[in-house]
Structure formats: C-alpha cells, structure tokens
Write a structure and sequence with these properties.
This protein has 25 helices and 19 strands. The strands form four sheets. Strands 9-8-10-11-13-12-17 form a seven-stranded mixed β-sheet, with helices on both faces. A five-stranded parallel β-sheet has the order 1-2-3-5-4, sandwiched between helices. α4 packs across α12 (258-269), α9 runs antiparallel to α10 and α16 (370-382) packs parallel to α18 (400-408).
C-alpha cells in the first residue's frame, strides 16, 4: 500500500504539503509506475519524467477551478494518481478500466481527451478566452507541452493568436530532448542552445542560489530578482523566439527540483499576458534503464525488475504487420534510389530505425508535423522521387487537406503506409485507426490497398511504387498471419478468391481475412459453405468479382476493421446501387457510428461482432432468411 497516495481523494492536499512531503509522494508515484509495468505494457518513461512537475503544478494551482491541459496525454499517469484515482489505477488500459489518456468521464481534473500532440496551447487559450468572456477571469489556464510536440504547426498558430490577444495564460514547455525518439529540427536545436548557453547557465545558477535562500512564496525580492534576470537576458541576447510571439520567456529551470518549480510557478501564476516557462526534465527519471534508453521504455512490454535489470515477461511478440512493412520499405530502397521515406516523429513506432540508419540521406523525420510531411512528399514526388509517407492512421488525419491539395489533386505518386489502421487495443479512442478508408477513398486518383497477411505487404508496396498516382496501404496493429495458397500477383483492382462455396460469400478487407476464414470453418460444420474473398483493393473495387457473387450467392457479408460510414462496405453498397445488384442480400460488418473504448483487440472485435463467432452468426441469419425466401418462392 502506498500510504500517501491511498489517502488522496483529490489533489487539494498537495497545496498544503512541504517540499519534502511532495518528494516522498513522488517516490510512491514512481513505485506505482514500476509496479504497473510488471502487469502490462503502458507509457512509462514519459510519466517518470513529469512526476515533480505534476506535483508542483497541483501544489500551486487548484485545477478543480483552474485549467490544465497535458500535451500529449500519455504523460497523464502521475496526474491521475494524485487526483483520486490511485485505487483504480491498476485497471489502467484494461477494458472497463481507466483510460491511458485524460478522460473527462473519469475526473473533473481532466478537461479534454487528449492523445494527439500540439493542441494544448490552442485549447488552453480557448479556455482562458471563454472564462474571460463568461466572467470567470480569475481562473488560471496552463498548458504543459513537450519539446517533441512543440514544433507542431498548430502550436505556433496558437502562440501567434495568444500574443495578439495578450491572454493571461501559462505554457509550460517540458523539455526532455525527446519525442518518442530524440526530437529533431531547428526548434530542437534552438532549445538546446537555450539549455547550454554559458551565460544562461552561469546566471541561472546564481539566481537559483539566491532564490533558494528566500521564502517559498510571495517575496517581492524574488520577483525583482527574476525580473532582473529576464532583463539582463534580453539585453545580452536581444529578442528571443518566444518573446517575438508576445510571450514572456522564463527559464530554463530544473524540472525535477520541486522547491524551485513551486517558486517559479508562483512567480508566473499572476503574470499578465502569455508566459512560457521552460522546464528541463529527464525522460525515464528515477529508473536507470529508462534513463539510459527512453526510446525503448516509452511504451515497453510488461517486465519484471531484478536488481535494476528489466526482464520482459512471457514470450516475445510474433512479427506484426509493422515489421513486414518496414522490411518491404528497406527492400525497395535498396533497389530504387528514387524511393524516400518520411515519418512524423514515429520512427520507433513504425520500426524504421534500420531504414533510417541504412539510408540516412533518403530518410526524413519531420517531427510531429503530419501536414508538412505530406506536402513535403508532394514536392519530392513532383521532381521525380517516389516518397513513402509512413504515419499511423489516427495521425494521418491531421494532414487531410494536404492529401487532397498537394497529392491527390496533383495526381502525384506518393505512397501512404498507414500503420495502426484498425483497433489499437489499450490505446483507445484517441488512437484507433478507424477513419482512414472514409477520408482517403473520397479523393479521385487515390488507390487503396489492404494486405490480408504478411505475404502481401511487399508486393503491394512494389505495386504502389510503380503506380503513376497516389496510393495507400493500410494495416493494423496486430500479428501478421500467413495463409498458404497459390501466389497471385497484385493487379490494380483485382481481388483474390481464397475458397469457393455455394451458399454465400464473405468479402474480407485486409487482415480481417483471418476472422473470415475462421468464421467459414464454423459455418462449414453447419453445412453452410461460403466463398471467401480477399478484397486486396478498397479502391478501385473488383467490379467483375462483385457482379459474379451478387448473381450467384444467397447472401454477401463484407467485413472490415474500420468505420462503416464511408468504409469498404459502403463502397460495395455504392457499387451495388450503381450496377443494379440486389442490395437486400448484402450486410456490412465493421465499426458502428460510435467511439470505441480501450481494451484488448480480441475483446473489442468480439463485442463488435467482428470475431469469427460474430461473423458466422450474421451469415447464419442471412442464410436462414434467404433459404426460407427461396423455399417460399419469393
């Protein structure tokens, strides 16, 4: 039992704790986090890095009244522990348990369900503006944003607006030199210069020495010293990037010194106009292996610790679609010097480190800037290169306009490798990749594919890189199966018949072929024989195949791991309407019009009727209905 955490029903008691008590609370938090990783995979290093910052924030502000936005939300675990959720914390990322991101349904301390980076400054500014307009100007508004998320374009849009409004808000820049991987780009270099400038470092040390001798709160001398520090900095360096946006810049300061953090937060709490507090932290702080390798320990597999040595629990994971996609990209880059790769701060998530290391001149990590990545790829394609954009489905949504304007409208040969397309399990609704079919297939010129198993990934990529226009390949976060069958080449708009049956047909989109084959085995035991079709192409559809099964089959079921609205089944239904086929025999299975909570992928598929049992049940119902209709002569 963690004595201090167990007593917290809210974060209010933190405002009355001494620095030593807060440090003791921090020890308990880190112990809880380490214990959690003995049971399941979870975000780890990022949460270890914000323990002191979280405690200092809650000790200075009352976020039942004041506003706090965490960007991104995966660093929310300490916040959850001190806001009355300790006793439920063991359920985090389990079906029906706490979400691994902020969730307003769980607590009044969580204002937005945040899982994508870069939006905190905008939402915090909106909250402050709204409070001012509704007579609640006394509420404070704080955005905590990591240095990896900071270069996102929307951050600078928000800062530009905040400076113009002269809004009384605080942006805490949590600088740990990391995104998931080490952060990249000019802003990263700029922050490094701020951290290491000899003048800053020496003067800061002197200010800290003096500040530490002053009372904790409210001393006018402290404020005077801070103002002198900022004035000297401005005189020595001139206009700084943040100050040009209208922000008062303060820092950098040690983000693991609770005493110092509280002093600075008190200092900026009532500051007029927008303020940016630059806080330096260490990702993985407090657990040596995570400090040494924060990339691996961002979301490590469950492990047990033996004398400071983490040992993964259970057998190693079987290769996922992501592994095969990475290998296919590597193969194509070896044989085609025109192929380039870009990702948006997800090199590790997309398992692209070997590609980055082998082809550094043709690999581009643009940071958390998905819109830029797609437009950048369009520019490369225009001059004859064959760019591959490797981005998660849920994050690619952020580049919707660039997919339209800079790629599809120009009919440029950009290939989108859409990872995590489908249910992402414990990451939940912010990360499920359910909408890419709907937002990609509406664009003219776009070709869309979905591999059913490991063997189809590389030939699909090879096809895409030879195609004259834009194309996409979507694949889920799951183990890639291999189905033994005669090899059939990838041809534009051509599906694949896996087995033939006389009663009905199941058309599987992508990796749902595994579920469809298992459903067919269940049906076979009840003397219902179905044709199984691997769609391969979402756009264009295999019209010849569809025409045949609509003529021959008693019923047709489409199965997809994506939103039904605008999805693969919708495309089949549109084709049926256009060609005058009997739409009454068609049923579409997929994700209904609702956000899906977190949980194990298998559990979620079963609940949604997308597991073999659910698919077989739909087929049996249709078979019975139309068998009876045939016997009745209808």
């Amino acid at each position: 039992m963690h004595e201090m955490l167990a007593k917290l029903e809210s974060a209010e008691p933190l405002q009355h704790m001494s620095t030593q008590e807060l440090e003791n609370l921090g020890v308990e938090i880190r112990d809880v986090l380490c214990n959690l990783l003995a049971t399941r995979t979870a975000h780890f290093a990022s949460n270890l890095g914000v323990v002191e910052l979280c405690l200092a924030l809650h000790s200075v502000f009352d976020f039942r009244k004041d506003r706090l936005i965490w960007d991104t939300g995966h660093q929310i675990y300490p916040h959850k522990l001190v806001t009355g959720r300790y006793h439920e914390f063991k359920t985090i990322r389990e079906r029906g348990g706490l979400m691994g991101y902020p969730n307003p349904a769980e607590s009044e301390y969580d204002l937005f369900m945040t899982g994508h980076a870069g939006c905190s400054v905008s939402t915090a500014l909106g909250l402050k503006s709204g409070d001012d307009l509704t007579g609640q100007a006394s509420r404070k508004s704080v955005a905590v944003i990591g240095d990896g998320a900071f270069p996102s374009g929307i951050v600078f849009e928000a800062m530009n607006n905040a400076g113009a409004l002269n809004a009384d808000m605080i942006v805490v820049l949590n600088d740990n030199k990391m995104s998931i991987c080490p952060r990249v780009g000019a802003v990263a270099s700029y922050l490094d210069r701020l951290r290491t400038n000899p003048f800053y470092t020496g003067f800061k040390s002197e200010v800290v020495r003096v500040l530490n001798k002053l009372p904790l709160f409210g001393d006018p001398t402290e404020r005077l010293l801070a103002q002198i520090k900022e004035g000297v900095k401005a005189g020595m360096v001139g206009g700084m990037l943040f100050e040009e946006f209208g922000f008062r810049y303060i820092g950098p300061i040690d983000g693991h010194d609770i005493h110092l953090l509280r002093k600075y937060l008190e200092m900026v709490k009532d500051q007029k106009g927008p303020t940016l507090l630059h806080v330096v932290t260490e990702k993985g702080r407090g657990y040596k292996p995570a400090e040494k390798d924060p990339v691996y320990f961002h979301t490590p597999p469950a492990f047990e610790d033996e004398d400071g040595c983490p040992k993964p629990l259970g057998a190693g994971d079987k290769p996922a679609f992501t592994n095969f996609a990475r290998d296919a990209i590597m193969s194509q880059m070896k044989v085609n010097k025109a192929v380039t790769v870009m990702t948006a701060a997800m090199c590790q998530g997309n398992k692209l480190e070997p590609v980055r290391d082998a082809f550094a001149d043709r690999f581009f990590d643009v940071g958390i800037c998905e819109s830029h990545a797609v437009a950048f790829a369009g520019g490369q394609a225009k001059v004859g290169l064959r760019p591959i954009v490797a981005i998660y489905s849920t994050f690619l949504q952020r580049s919707y306009d660039q997919i339209f304007q800079e790629v599809a409208l120009q009919n440029l040969p950009v290939t989108f490798m859409i990872d995590r397309a489908g249910l992402t399990g414990p990451d939940g609704p912010t990360h499920h990749g359910l909408y890419d079919i709907g937002y990609m297939r509406v664009f003219p010129n776009m070709v869309m594919m979905a591999p059913a198993d490991a063997t189809e990934v590389e030939p699909m990529l090879e096809f895409a890189l030879s195609h004259s226009g834009p194309s996409s390949i979507r694949y889920p976060k799951t183990t890639a199966q291999t189905f033994e069958r005669p090899k059939q080449p990838i041809e534009l708009g051509k599906s694949e018949i896996i087995r033939s049956g006389s009663d009905g047909a199941i058309i599987a989109c992508g990796a749902m072929l595994q579920q469809a084959i298992a459903a067919a085995e269940i049906l076979k035991k009840e003397d219902i024989n179905v044709t199984i079709i691997n769609a391969r192409f979402i756009k264009p559809l295999d019209i010849k195949m569809l025409n045949q099964i609509f003529e021959e089959c008693r019923f047709i079921v489409t199965v997809e791991e994506g939103a039904l609205m605008g999805g693969f089944g919708s495309a089949v239904l549109e084709a049926a309407c256009a060609n005058g086929w009997d739409t009454r025999i068609l049923r579409t299975l997929g994700i209904p019009d609702q956000f899906i909570e977190h949980g194990d992928r298998g559990e979620l598929l079963a609940e949604l009727g997308l597991d073999p049992i659910g698919i077989a049940k739909t087929c049996k119902t249709l078979n019975e209905k139309y068998s009876n209709a045939e016997h009745a002569g209808v």
